[in-house]
Amino acid sequence: MGSTVEKGIIRMSAxxxxxxxxLLVILLLAGxxxxxxxxxxxxxxxxxxxxxxxxxxxxxxxLWAATAGGVFRFDPADSSYVRxxxxxxxxxxxVTAIAIDPSHRVWTGQASGAIDVFDPxxxxxxxxxxxxxxxRADRTIRSFTVAGDRLYIATAFGIALFSLDRFExxxxxxxxxxxxxxxxxxxxxxxxxxxxxxxxxIAVSKPSAVNLAAPESWELxxxxxxxxxxxxxxxxxxxxxxxGLLRFDGSAFVPVPAVAAGVRIVGQTDSAxxxxxxxxxxxxxxxxxxxxxxxxxxxxxxxxxxxxxxVPVTAFAQNGAAVFDPLRRQWRTYFPNGPRSNSFYxxxxxxxxxxxxxxxxxxxxxxxxxxxxRWRNYHxxxxxxxSSNDCFNVEIGPxxxxxxxxxxxxxxxxxxxxxxxxxxxRVSPGFVGISENxxxxxPGGTAxxxxxxxxxxVFRASRSDSVLWRMAPDSTWTVHRRSPFGNxxxxxxxxxxxxxxxxxxxxxxxxDFSNDQTLTFYNExxxxxxxxxxxxxxxxxxxxxxxxxxxxxxxxNGDVWLGTSSGITIVTDPSDxxxxxxxxxxxxxxxxFVYAVAVDPLNNKWVGTSKGVFILSPDGTQLLDQxxxxxxxxxxxxxxxxxxxxxxxxxxxxxxxxxxxxSLEMTxxxxxxxxxxIALSPNPVYLPEHRQVEIRGLVEESTVKVLTxxxxxxxxxxxxxxxxxxxxxxxxxxRTVASGIYIIVAHDRTGAQxxxxxxxxxxx
Length: 764
Known about the structure:
Layout: E1 4-6, E2 9-11, E3 19-20, H1 21-31, E4 44-47, E5 53-59, E6 62-67, E7 70-75, E8 80-84, E9 95-100, E10 106-110, E11 115-119, E12 124-128, E13 141-147, E14 150-155, E15 159-163, E16 168-173, E17 184-190, E18 193-198, E19 201-205, E20 218-221, E21 227-233, E22 236-241, E23 244-248, E24 253-255, E25 263-268, E26 272-277, E27 280-285, E28 290-292, E29 301-307, E30 311-316, E31 320-325, E32 330-334, E33 346-349, E34 355-358, E35 367-370, E36 375-378, E37 391-396, E38 402-406, E39 411-414, E40 420-424, E41 443-448, E42 454-458, E43 468-471, E44 477-480, H2 487-490, E45 496-498, E46 504-506, E47 509-510, E48 513-514, E49 519-522, E50 535-538, E51 549-554, E52 560-564, E53 567-571, E54 581-583, E55 596-599, E56 605-609, E57 612-616, E58 623-627, E59 643-647, E60 652-657, E61 660-665, E62 679-681, E63 685-687, E64 693-696, E65 703-708, E66 713-718, E67 724-727, E68 740-747, E69 754-763
Parallel strand pairs: 63-69
Antiparallel strand pairs: 1-2, 2-3, 4-61, 5-6, 6-7, 7-8, 9-10, 10-11, 11-12, 13-14, 14-15, 15-16, 17-18, 18-19, 19-20, 21-22, 22-23, 23-24, 25-26, 26-27, 27-28, 29-30, 30-31, 31-32, 33-34, 34-35, 35-36, 37-38, 38-39, 39-40, 41-42, 42-43, 43-44, 45-46, 46-49, 47-48, 49-50, 51-52, 52-53, 53-54, ...
């Protein structure tokens, strides 16, 4: 018999007993800890930089911005932001255009040609993919223009006309009497004629034209300019161009003498056009007067809008949406908290779940830290200890410290609170740079050994006694000589790991820096067979799938996994590396250029390639899963994977790309060393709202039993996630259990360690 909830009392079947809800709560508080639930296993998030705005739209005082990292909404009433990415319904995060129609729907266009429409009344995004599927080489949506029931969509190949009422495309214009097909930046409807601002001039439909799909229906005006934008003032159509402001007189676009330099129209009021040109915001009035509205800014304007109160808002390439405050003589910028760049060249996660990431060795934007709530950015503009924004390596050190390697400016050390405390370079401890410039110091990688010492290798150190360094827990440094195999072997040492034997392993290639060199390893104890001065090498002759080793990871069995430009090699006996090497033969990764290998708490291997993420079984013989942009609906930010790391406590996989950081809540968490207590979440469980109970605090290879309060075993199963298990509130025959109190018992493989907790199940 089923159960019902009535007036606070759970009515159970005749075989059970009626238990007041208040009693359930008392029992739970007495017997089990309560913890908050996460978004849920399988939930994705996408973390992106939304400072790079391409367009902005205003719905009254509320601002909407299209950025290189998705869409954000800003409400000045409470200074709140709402972010939208592919994890929230966007087709892609590379958003290039935005507009708001008379029904307050938000229209966004993307570089892929996709158009996503957001209805604030329902909170639902609707995707329009006709242009994406058109097969055109460049499908970028440049801008939108709303005119009555029509939406004019300016694209890289022409103008698409969309009916707002019928919600369908009704026409496309791609021939504008130009010698070749132009890219359209903006469209306008004026006096019954359609105008197109293109990279080959400004085209206007002829007054009597009916079929605008025909090239003879258009005339090309001002062919020597690049049009960027349109605006209307006092009944006249104006165009912002690379050569200044132009006014349409009915037959030609004539220059406005007051605005002779390149300019973009970012908005219009009843009495003036708002322009951005010569690095300042300007106003051109209906009386022909040009006024400067702002101080100069070094950023580039990509568009703009007029918010409530005739407030001009500008979309900037580096500072989001911005409004100039004339009283304080400063720009107020608006963009949500996030990383300073979409590039996640390498990521590391400490045992508290704090994420550190670097932006890359070329054209970098510094590095960033995420505590699960907010991002903090570090760069030359806000941190005195950061002397280069080209940061390409990050590792977690002792006491939750972070060690950030720069390309040419040494090491930066951050403490557990995220504050930068010092740098290491030429002066201290004495790192030596490349032969061309001894002060140009590139720490290839850092790693921590079992004694808590930090090891650092220096890329292309010009002195043989300055390649490998060790900082002891007392902060004293010692240096180890380079390998005896010559510059080819140890000049190009990038990342670094330390295996269980204390052997240091070095990659010899980076994503954008490959050299066909020897893979080297080092153990100062002299315990490696056939070493030379404690150094050893592996080559293709030993069984490497390629001499380009791009990443290294040690698994839970102590095996060393080498990602190469042609698949994966496993060193199954690191105490004698050359003795036994094996290759991963799974077709999905065999011969792939592997950029990242990471080991999750279940010892599965997450492999990052240019074709997405492949998850392999612990021994590498089975493909367990695969994540791509396509099969995740864009929740994986890009198929080209830079880095992978795990929050082993919370069970989150972080996947770094050059288009943002994706995170996925996974089943696996780090097992406890002993069962001390069991945590259940949610508790109580309300069905059908809740789908499962999370059981945490388990050791490796735990078994879980679910019992009634009378001791009957309803279900028994192995823990699915290493340190946690999931119960779907069903019995052994797959039937949903009745409302009541249930006992969760967990024990290790031998049964020597056990833990119990109580959970209340309430069927509504």
